[in-house]
Amino acid sequence: MSTQQPNRLSRRDFLRWSGATAAVLAVAACAPSTPAPQSGADAGAAPSAEKIVLRMQVNPEQEKPVVDMYRAINPNVDFEFVSVTGIDHEEVAAKILTLVASGQALDLGYAATEATQLYAGQKLAAPIDEWVKRDAAELQEYFADVHPSLIQAMMWEGSLYQLPIDFNAANMYYNVAVLQEAGVEAPKTDWTKDDFYNIAKAATKKNASGATETYGYAWTNRLWGGWMPWIFVNDSNLLVEEEAPGGEWLWGQFYADDPAAQGRGGGWRWTAPKANDPANVEALEFLVQLHEEGITPAIELGGGDTLQGFFTTGKLAMTPAGGFWAGGLNNAGMPNGSFDVQLMPKWKNQRHQFGTAGQWIFADGKNKDAAWDYMKFRISKDAMMANGMFNPVTLTTPTRRSMLTAERFAETGPANWQVFYATLDDHPDTAPIPAPPVSNPMTATFVAYTSRAMNGEMTPQAALDGMQKDLEDLYARTPNMYTRSS
Amino acid sequence: MQSTTTPFAPPRRSAGAATGDYLRYRLGRWLVLLATACFAVIVVAPFAWTVSTSMRLPMESFSVPPQWIVLNPDWSNYARVFERIPFFRQILNSFIVTIAVVIGQLFTASLAGYAFARLEFPGRNLLFWLIMATMMIPLQATIIPVFVIISRLGLANTLWALIIPALPTAFGAFLMRQYFLGVPKDFEEAAVIDGANQLQIFGRVYLPLVTPALAVLAMLVFNGTWNDFFRPLIFINDPYLFTIPLGLNDLKGYMATGSISVVLAGVTMSLIPVVIVYIFGQRYLIEGIMMGGVKG
Amino acid sequence: MSSTATTNQGAHKSPNPFSWLTENTLHGMARRKALLGYLFLAPTILGILIFTAGPVIFSFVLSLFRWNVFSPPEWIGAVNYTRMFTDSRALTGFWNSFVFVLFAVALQVALGLLLAMILQTRMPMWLRYTYRTSFLLPMLMSGAATAIVLGYMLHKEFGAVNYYLGLLGIPQIPWLTQPGWAMVSVIMSYLWLATGFTMILFIGGLNNISAEILDAADVDGAQGLTRFWHITLPLVSPTLLFAAVTGVIGGLQVFDLPYIMTRGGPGDSTRTAVMVMYESAFKNMEIGYGSTIAVVLFLIILAVTAGQFGLSKRWVFYQ
C-alpha cells in the first residue's frame, strides 16, 4: 500500500494546462539561459532540435507543477499522461500489464514496494545504475537527504530501479479525545505491546447489551499496515528475508559516512514462505483475541474509508497508518490536535514495516535517457516541494528528511510528526513489507487466510498452516524468482 | 393497465359470490398493497441515505441512528467533487458514449433479431446458436485481444473505443428475436397479399409491433452502457475522456483518503441526468409496452 | 449467393438481371428473404467476429500456454486445465458462482414476477406509478456505486441496516464479515439492482396475455393459485425463459458487486469464477491460466443455456 497515490484525484482542466504550459514556454524562451541540467537526452543533439514525447504514468493533477517546471527548462520534451487508477496496488499493476500486453508502451511508471520487484523481476523495468553513476555528483545531495532503508527497498539483485519519492511506515494513530475520555495517557515512544493492550481495552466502550460503541483498535485486511506491523514487532516476517549481494557501488558512493548504511546489501530477497512461524501464530492470536474481547471490530477487506469514518467520528481510538493519513484526516475535517501519532509499540522489538514509491523506467522505452533526465529532475528538492503529493496538503510522506518540518504539519497535524522519519532513523532495521515478484497472488493468499482466522472460521494456527501451504505451492510454481538470467 | 389483463381477477359480484369472499378479497388486496409499500420504502432507502449523507460533514457521515433529514446541509462536498474531477466533461462523455451505443445497438439488434425470427436462409440455426454462444463469453475473457485490436485501429484512449466494440450485440439480437417470434405469421401473409416487399414487411409491419422490445432494449443498453465500469477502466486513461463511473471511482481516492460524503455527493450528482432520462424514458417504455399489439 | 445475373426466366415484365431475385414467385421471395437475412445479420456477425468470437478463439489458444505477458508464451498443453481441477480457489470460485446464480436468478425471477403481478392489480394510477418507479430506481445505480453505498449501509457496527434490525431486537448481523452472510449480502445487492428490470419484463409479458384467454379463465371460474399455475404462468413462460436465460448469463458474469463490496472475501467465500479469472489473468499475470478459467466458464454457460432451451420445449408456451 504505502505510498503510491494512483487514485488521488483532483485533476483540473487539461485545456487550461496547455495554455499555461504555452505561457511558461513563452517566458522560458525569453528568459536568460537557464542552467539546464546535463541531460542524457540532448547529449549529441542540440536541445529543442527534436521533440521528445514521454509517456508517463502519473496523477496529472499532482504532476502538473513539476512538469511545468521541467518544461520551462526543457521545451523539447512533451509529456503524455497516463493516469492509471485502481482500488489497490494489484489493480494498478494489472492495468499497467494490460497496457504492456496490448503494446501500449510507456516511458515512465510509478510504483510502490508492492510492485518494485514485480517489474524488476520481469525485466519490465530498467536498472538505473549506469545513470546514477554518471550523474553521481548531482545526486549526492538527494541520497544524503534520504534514508538508506528506503533506497535499499528499491534495489533488486544489486541494481537500483527507482529513486524513492514518498514512503509510509505503519505508525499508530490515536484519537486524542477518545483516549482522554478513557482516562489513559497518550502512548510514549517506548511503549510496549502490553501498554497498547491496556490503552485499547480502556478506550473500548460497550453499551448495556454488551455491543461495542467505541473500539480500542481497528485495522483493514491488506498487506501493508494490516496485521503485518505486528508480525514485524514480534521479530518475524511472512517470508524468509535475505539481503541480496551487491550494491557496494551505491553504498560506497553515496553513504560511505552513514552508519545506518553499513552492511547493507543489494536489495531484499524473500526466498521462501514462513507464514506459520510460531511468532506469526502468536501475533495473529493476539489480534484474534482483541476481536473476541470486542476491542477490535470485524475486520473488513479493502479501503480504509470506514476506518477513517470511525476514527473521525470518535468511534475508534487507535489504528495503524502512515503519513498519508494526516492529509486524509484533514480533508475529512479533523482538526490538528484532535489526533496524533506514535511509533508501533515494542513487542520483541520495535521494527517497523514500510512501503515506498517512486518512478521507474520502462526497459523497452524509446527515450530512456530522457526518461532518466525527468526522473532525476523529479527527485530534486524544488520539484518535490512543488509536487501535488506534498503541496499544498501532505498526502503522503516525502522521502527527503529535510522536507519533514514543523511548518509542513503546522496546519494539519499531527503534532508528533517527527515519528515519521524517526521510524527510520531510530530503527534502521525497519524494512519494506515483503513483496517478491509474486506479490500479487501472495497478497491475495495472505488476505484470504487472515480473514478466515479473524472471523473464527479457522484457528490462527490452521489459517497460517493453510496460508503456508498455498504460498509454498505458489513458490513452487515460480522457481528461480531471484535468478538474473540475461 | 387495463383490468381485463389483470392476472388476479376480483371475484365476480355479478356471478353471485358471497359478500364475505369479496370482503376477504378487499382486505387481502390492502394487505398486499401495504406490504408492497414497505418493500418500496426499503428499496428506495439507499437513495435517501446516499443523498442525505452527501450533505453531511464527513465527520458526521457515520452517525447512528442515520439522519435521514439533514437540518444543516453542508454543500461543500459537492464543491469538492468539481475540484477533484472534471465532472461535467465526464457526464458529457457518458452521454455521448451511451447514446451512440443505444442507437447503434437498436439498429444492429433489430436487423439481426428479425433475420433470425422471420427470414429463412441456409445456416440460420447454426448462425443463431453461434451468436448465442458468444453471448455467454465473459467480457473479461476477451478484453486483452480486444484491447490489442482497439490499439491497432488507433482508437485506444478515445471514446470510439467504448462505442465500436459495443455495437454488435448478441443479447440484443436474442431479445429482438424473441419478440419477433411472438408476432403471428398472419401479419406477414396479410402484408404479402397487400403487395408489400420484404423490407416493407420488416419496416412497416414488424418493427412497429415490437416497439416495446425496442424500448426495453434501449433502456437496458442505456443502463448497461452508462454504468459500464470494466471496459472504460481498461480502454481509457485520460481523465478527460473518463465516463462518470470511473470519475466516481477516482473520487474514492487512493487508500480511501477521499471522504465518504464527497463520494456520495458525486454519486448523487451522477444520478441526476439518468433520473431525468429515466422519468421520460419510463413513460415511453411503459406506453410502448401497453401499445405493443402483440396479442394471440 | 451468386453475384452474376442469371437469364431472365419467369419474368413477365422488363428484362432484369436481378430477376432471379426479384421474380414474383415463391422462389424469388425465398431468395429475397435469404439475401435480406444475410444483409441484416452482417453488422452483427462482422462485429461479433472481430470483437468477441475472434478474441475468444485467441483465449482458447492462450489457455494452452503459460504466458505472463513479458516473456514469450510457452506451450504447455493441457497443464492449465489439470491444474484448474486441483486448484481449490478456482473450484471454490465455480462453486460460489453456482450458489450465487442459483439463488440470485431464482429470487430475481420470482420477485420480478410477483412485483409485476402486484402492479397489474387494481390500484390508483399514482400508486402504481410510485411503486413502479421505486422498484425500477435501483437500475439507475451502477454496480460500483451500489457496492459502495450498500457496503456502507451493511456495515456490521455502524451501518443503517443493523441499526434498524437492532430496534427490532435482532443482534448485529456480520453482513460482510462472515462467509455465509457475505454471500447473502452480495445476492441481496444483486437483487436490489436487477429485480426492477425483470419486473418490467414480466409487466410486458403479462400485458401481452390476450384478454380472451383471461376472460375464458374467468368464465371457467379459475381463481387464485389455480389461475396462477394453469393460466398466468404458462402464458408468461416465454418471458420466464428469457429472464432465466439472461439472468444466468448475467449472473455468472457479475463482477463489480463482489469485487468492490467484499473483494471476494472473507476468505474466498464470495470469490466468483469471473473474479478468479480476472485475478489470475491480470493480477497474477497468468494469462494462460486465466484464459483456461474463462474457457471453462464459457463452456459451462453454454451447457446451462442449451439445457434451458432444451427443457424449455416442455414448458414454454407460445401463444
Describe the structure.
The complex is a heterotrimer of chains A (486), B (296) and C (319). Chain A is α+β, with helices and mostly antiparallel strands and 486 residues long. Chain A has a domain at 19-168 and 357-408: Periplasmic binding protein-like II (D-Maltodextrin-Binding Protein, domain 2). Chain A contains 20 helices and 16 strands. In chain A, β1, α2 and β2 form a beta-alpha-beta unit. In chain A, α1 packs parallel to α2 and α19 runs antiparallel to α20 (460-477). Mean pLDDT of chain B is 79; it is low at 1-7 and 291-296. Chain B is mainly α and 296 residues long. Chain B is built from 13 helices and no strands. Chain B has 2 domains: 3-54, no CATH class; 80-291, MetI-like (MetI-like fold). Chain C is mostly helical and 319 residues long. Chain C contains 14 helices and 2 strands; from the N terminus they run ααββαααααααααααα. In chain C, β1 and β2 form a beta hairpin. In chain C, α4 (88-120) runs parallel beside α8. The longest helix of chain C is centred in the N-terminal third of the chain and has 37 residues, at 26-62. Chain C starts with 18 loop residues before the first helix and ends with a helix. At the A-C interface, α3, α13 and α19 of A face α13 of C.
